[in-house]
Amino acid sequence: FFSFVSFLFFFFFPLLSQLFPFYFPSLNLPFLKFKTRNMSSCDVQEFNKVTSEQKEFISLLDSGNPFMLDGAMGTSLYSRGYFINRAFDEANCTCPDKVFAVHEEHIASGADVIETNTFSANRCMLSKYGAADQLEAINRQGVKIARKAINESRRQVFLAGSIGPTGEAIGYMNDSTVETITKAFEEQIHILIDEGCDLLIFETFRHLQEMKICLKVARKCFPGGIIAQMSFEENGNLADGTPPCRVAELLHEWGANAVGPNCDGPAAIYDIAVKMVCKKVAPVVACPNAGHPRLLDSRMLYMATPEYFCVYGKRMLKAGVRGVGGCCGTTGDHLEMLTGSIRMLAAGVDHGELSDDAPDSPKRTERGCAGSVVANINKCEKTLEPVPASERSNFGAKVMRVWEERLKGGTQRKAPTSREDFVVSVEVNPAPGLDVTKRVEEARKLKAAGVDVINIADGPRAAVRVSNTALGLAMQRELGTEVILHVCCRDRNLLGLQSDILGYHVLGLTNLVIITGDPPKMGDYPKATAVFDLDSVSLLQLINGLNRGVDPAGKVSSGQTRFFLATGAEPGAVDYERELKRLRQKVAAGAQLIMTQPVYDIAVANKFLDDIQDLHVPVLLGLCPLVSARNAEFLHNEVPGMQIPDPIRERMKKAGRGPEAVAEGVKIAKEMLNGLQDRVVGCYIMPQLGKFAAAIDILADLGYGAPVENGDAKKENGLC
């Protein structure tokens, strides 16, 4: 009996250990090893077979659609009790359930690409932990665990084989060092390929020489996509002084399909990634840390919030970065925050070239709801002639009159002399809570001061407030003033949007500004889902169809709407060419007025106005009077789409705080208006922190604030 038990222990259980190391990692005994093929030599014919998943990932890179990578493996393992005095990669064999749980969390948070837990699983790094003999098992298990998590998620997620630097002294590299590094990369890369990775990601490399070796090894035997990411110094360059633009060129030249920075704070990664995007040599994929770590109670913690991480994630995506993920300190919470931004920008797909003279015939790839809406509307041949823009609302009538009389279709410039030949919209948003009385009274004072229309955002800052429809209707009924409602695509599907739009028309709310909308990332309910069935271009096309008597299904309706349609634009966009292209698509889709983001640089605004002059569409200049230095820094650093030049921020710092700072903010806004008023039909003012008096102060030179009827102006205005 004893002999039989001994036979089972020494032969049967080790056999299970070799066949199923995922379940029997502790039984991986050294005296029983199966002979495996030599992975240090590459069989090119065998490895160069391209899988369907590898092709699909390359297609994703080519598509232009944004995607999200996963977060930090080490951070998540540490939070689950895995100690940092061991190689995190060993967890693949010692506690695979924890590694699996991290992958599962990242996929559930929305990751489109997850990385194997093999960042340091090369022979050089594992030797430092005495684990080099487990190299093959660690790498194979890393792929198997991640693949199991993907399979159980039942959605398409790409698996990236993660490879980090060897830790060798690159600065003193000789032939022997090159050989050691080459063999280390060959060994690990061949195992990851053999296990079926969809792509490879080389991350946190600090030296170009080492990255070049790694890419050279991979390109000999891997036909799939490769992401190559470098870690930069505080000055924004590599340790050897190479700037980001040149790094992007070299990585692409050496065989990387995508390039980018990783492992630094969100702000630093943003600056580097934007420089790489501007070079336009390859798609850029960036993975910032959660922030900068701080030592608290003997633990290194990342203090930046997921909201802060998401702000920069969205900025990067809007600047043209294709993929964003997380590095050190990032968790599923960070990824969840970012998911809404990914979906929002994915909704803004390329609509092709839309002809300005044929807005109802866009050349567009049909995709989801947006594509089918466009296709259905365009199939309908029986359409009504739209109501002229000047007859759709009083606001629309004044915009078109001023455009024709003062700007002559953009061929002549004439500065306004009074409020009769200038259009003003001031933003008054719903306050938290149920009482709208205060906001209605603020609108009453603005109307008395001569403001033409009240602008009301749709769920500003993705927070829960009274709907802009309810507030707008209250203002319109009680004050007799017109409002212009923001309509965003975030919260409602196609049916809900169509129903609300028809409702606006019935209620007489016919001025709309169409935007894609912010994801619900910074409000009271960050886990709320974003819909984005349509983007701003598609929604403009839908409403333009309703204005012609055609519903989204392509059917002729019993009547037609008469909406005056505006859209937004960002003169200082980082990806300026994309912004112009999108704006042209919006105008071709039916936009009749452009409302810009706040402008703080006259030269930037003039270039923008020059570049869109051929559109022959009136423009409202966005003005956001600053109220303090802190307010300026917040808008510049935390609000996507806002760029406030250093000289302006410096002026606000010198102004200090209180009334002096508010006055300086008004002065800056006046300078912008005075320098550009002969090129725009009017302005769109966004007062900060309830400083509505600042809006009228900006316009004082044009006669705003004077009594509309007999009476004392000061009593009439009473602005606070």
Describe this structure in words.
With 720 residues, the protein is of the alpha/beta class. The chain folds into 2 domains: 36-347, Homocysteine-binding-like domain (TIM Barrel), CATH 3.20.20.330; 390-529 and 536-544 and 564-717, Alpha-Beta Barrel (TIM Barrel). Strands 11-12-13-14-15-16-17-18 form an 8-stranded parallel beta barrel, surrounded by 6 helices. A 5-stranded parallel sheet has the order 2-3-4-5-6. Strands 1-10-7 form a 3-stranded parallel sheet, with helices on one face. Helix 20 links the parallel strand 14 and strand 15. Helix 6 runs parallel beside helix 8 and helix 11 packs across helix 12. The radius of gyration is 30 Å and the shape is elongated. The N and C termini lie far apart (95 Å). Residues 17-46, 295-301, 349-368, 521-526 and 706-720 have low confidence and may be disordered.
In short:
It contains 27 helices and 18 strands. The strands form 4 sheets. The chain has an 8-stranded parallel β-barrel, surrounded by 6 helices. The protein has a 5-stranded parallel beta sheet with strand order 2-3-4-5-6.
Radius of gyration: 30 Å
CATH topology of the largest domain: TIM Barrel
* Count of domains: 2
- Structural class determined from secondary elements: alpha/beta
Low-pLDDT regions: 17-46, 295-301, 349-368, 521-526, 706-720
Which descriptors apply to this entry?
transferase, TIM Barrel, 720 residues, elongated, alpha/beta, 2 domains, methylenetetrahydrofolate reductase [NAD(P)H] activity, FAD-linked_oxidoreductase-like, FAD, Mehydrof_redctse-like
